[in-house]
Amino acid sequence: xxxxxxxxxxxxxxxxxxxxxxxxxxxxxxxxxxxxxxxxxxxxxxxxxxxxxxxxxxxxxxxxxxxxxxxxxxxxxxxxxxxxxxxxxxxxxxxxxxxxxxxxxxxxxxxxxxxxxxxxxxxxxxxx
Length: 128
Description:
Helix content is 38%, strand content 30%. It has 128 residues and is α/β, with parallel strands linked by helices. The chain has a single domain, classed as Transcription Regulator spoIIAA.
């Protein structure tokens, strides 16, 4: 994995062997932090070389529903316009974080949810 960005709440890496961006979200998230992190991710995609994301929420704690509608209605359409084709989302074991993630998922076949890294990885690497 090649490190692309490190912040307190999010580590972004690229897996060149399997050609996906790995988003490792950490700890409590709020709307401001999510929007700022979303802008970083979007900027990477606008460079044009990425199309797949493994979005890992297993270390996210607590609710972040105040950012859910923005994520679904603004960020995901912007990401798709920037080249996103496949987004594997591993939900947090924290029920409040999972509920926020479910609310943030757009009605799109680009995004698929999973409960484990292995399941998400297998699905993502199988996508063209």
